[in-house]
Design brief:
39% helix; mainly alpha; elongated; Histone, subunit A; 4% strand; two-stranded antiparallel ribbon
């Protein structure tokens, strides 16, 4: 892995439009170096026998049974609307209206 040095911190700060003091550059260089060292440690671990983690919680989402049920039909559904025209919902014009 390439070294993350002060020049890289300055470049990232410039791209982010941040003005850092030299003390901040030094501090951030050290902090990012610690983070990258930890990531290298994690990268060295053998995870071949570890199953992928889909969620940190062992919660099964409540699902209803996927049962086939009859539809009430278009006429019934459209009749529940405030306004309808034949088998379509009637809504106010929104495009081109002044």
């Amino acid at each position: 892995m390439s070294k993350f040095g002060a020049d890289t911190v300055r470049k990232v700060a410039e791209l982010a439009r941040l003005q850092l003091t030299e003390a901040e550059v030094t501090k951030f260089t050290e902090q990012v170096g610690h983070i990258l060292a930890y990531v290298e440690k994690l990268d060295a671990l053998d995870t071949a026998q570890v199953a992928p983690l889909l969620s940190p919680l062992e919660v099964v989402p409540p699902l209803r049974a996927d049962d086939l049920r009859p539809s009430p039909g278009a006429e019934v559904m459209v009749s529940l609307a405030k306004e309808h025209l034949y088998e379509s919902y009637k809504v106010p014009q929104v495009m081109g209206a002044h």
